[in-house]
Amino acid sequence: MHLSTIILIVDAVLLLGISLFLALRFRKKKKNTQEPTAPQDPNDTILSLSNVVKVYGEGENAVKALKGIDLAFKRSEFVSVLGPSGCGKTTMLNIIGGLDHYTEGDLIINGVSTKRYKDRDWDTYRNHSVGFVFQSYNLIPHQSVMQNVELALTLSGVPKSARKKRVIEALTKVGLKDQIHKKPNQLSGGQMQRVAIARALVNNPDIILADEPTGALDTETSVQVMELLKEVSKERLVIMVTHNPELAEKYSSRIINMVDGLIKGDSSPVKPQTELKTRKEKKVKKPSMSFFTAFRLSLKNLFTK
Ligand SMILES: Nc1ncnc2c1ncn2[C@@H]1O[C@H](COP(=O)(O)OP(=O)(O)O)[C@@H](O)[C@H]1O
Ligand SMILES: [Mg+2]
């Protein structure tokens, strides 16, 4: 084979790769610049679990952490989940947030079954629709408050130019605007948790999941965090796991009790969605470039060189 032919082939392959990469990037940006949809009824069901079972491990070592959970949640409410240690609270929260997957049953998000979700669908859901808050804050120690919050935007593909404004807005909401240049170890526990809440909020997700967010805080600071989560729940779903029934009673709008992988009490049950939309319908609403289009564009690009 001639050297020039080899160079041409290498060139063609490189160009194809670059074009595909650009096409995929373009598609990602397009997703993020979607117009906000019309205001939705806060009483709509946003999410339901239908007979969700979770088994960890296999054979003799199998642990059935969830034994058939049926639950539905409204678009806007503040739900507390109570129950003894090991009863499956974290497992349920992780499944709702797409951090872990159910073994049986279904998780229905906005009327769409997740049974056929691919990794990419879960990534999109986690990055755009859910914000997580953990007991141990999970902040990156060597990064500033600003950088910690900004990371959530970077991961979901928001361009740099738009990031700073949104980070400052989120930090203002949690009352930490004047701490943006500090490192986590220069903050109190309550302040660190508020940074984590800002990070969870910065993508404007529909759902905030908080796993024992006040578990490491004193009473006074816990109250501040609860007030903040209550405020946040006015326009989204907040599901919080807690060991503190007094705080749950005082601040949340609904209390769910779990025992041994099952729901044993629910102060205001929500009707699950019965009419499931098909995935196709949903796809029509969110137009994006197909792999074929990306491929065709790349070829066109190649031959018009
Ligand atoms: N990754 C895992 N592998 C195996 N077993 C697990 C795992 N995560 C949780 N479990 C088990 O599942 C059950 C429920 O755990 P978890 O959801 O963490 O409970 P809770 O948050 O209510 O304390 C427990 O028996 C626990 O040991
Ligand atoms: Mg737990």
Characterization of this structure:
- The structure is a single chain.
- This protein is of the alpha/beta class and 305 residues long.
- The protein has two domains: 3-29 and 281-303; 45-274, P-loop containing nucleotide triphosphate hydrolases (Rossmann fold, 3-Layer(aba) Sandwich).
- It is 42% helix and 21% strand.
- It has ten helices and ten strands.
- It has a six-stranded mixed beta sheet, sandwiched between helices. It has a four-stranded antiparallel beta sheet with strand order 2-1-4-5, with helices on one face.
- Helix 6 runs parallel beside helix 7.
- The protein binds adenosine-5'-diphosphate (ADP) and magnesium ion.
- The site of adenosine-5'-diphosphate (ADP) has 12 residues, from strand 2 and helix 2.
- Magnesium ion is lined by residues 89-90.
Q: What sequence of helices (H) and strands (E) makes up the elements?
A: HEEEHEEHEHHHEHEHEEHH
- Give the beta-strand count: 10
Question: What is the beta-strand fraction?
Answer: 15-25%
Fill in the CATH topology of the largest domain: Rossmann fold
The overall number of domains is 2
Radius of gyration: 22 Å
CATH architecture of the largest domain: 3-Layer(aba) Sandwich
- The chain-level structural class is alpha/beta
Give the ligands present.
Answer: adenosine-5'-diphosphate, magnesium ion
The side-by-side strand order for the widest beta sheet comes to: 6-7-8-3-9-10
Task: Please state the overall shape, judged from the principal axes of the Cα atoms.
Answer: globular
In whole angstroms, the N-to-C terminal distance is 23 Å
Q: Report the biggest beta sheet as strand number plus sense, adding barrel if it closes.
A: 6 strands, mixed
Query: CATH homologous superfamily of the largest domain - what is it?
Result: P-loop containing nucleotide triphosphate hydrolases
Which CATH class of the largest domain is shown? Answer: Alpha Beta
Mean pLDDT: 87
Please count the helical segments. 10
Low-pLDDT sequence parts: 28-34, 282-290, 300-305
Helical residue percent?
40-55%
